[in-house]
Amino acid sequence: MTRYHSLVVEPDSLPACFDVTAWSETREIMGIRHRQWDLEGVQFHPESILSEQGHQLLANFLHR
User: Fold this and answer.
1) Does the residue 30 lie in any domain?
2) Phi and psi, residue 16, nearest 5°
3) pTM for this one?
4) Number of structural domains found in the chain
5) Which domain holds residue 18?
6) What is the pLDDT along the chain (64 residues), one digit of tens a residue?
7) DSSP readout, 2-55?
8) Residue 3 belongs to some domain of the structure
9) Cα angle vertex 64, ends 42, 19, to 5°?
10) For residue 1, is it within any domain?
């Protein structure tokens, strides 16, 4: 996963309405999903050539 900043969501600050869907190798939260609403977010750049499987992730999101 490729990030261009140092900001991350701290696990203790994540509201209970979110599930973690992706972690970095160093256990930083990289993806979340709301438990009730159709909301998802990632904290990396899936479009970057440096993000392994990033284009597949985008395709999966668009064709779900």
Assistant:
1) yes
2) -65, -15
3) 0.71
4) 1
5) 11-62
6) 455 557 778 889 999 999 999 888 888 888 899 999 999 888 877 677 767 777 787 787 788 7
7) --SS-----GGGS-TTEEEEEE-TT--EEEEEESSSS-EEESS-TTSTTSTTHH
8) no
9) 40
10) no
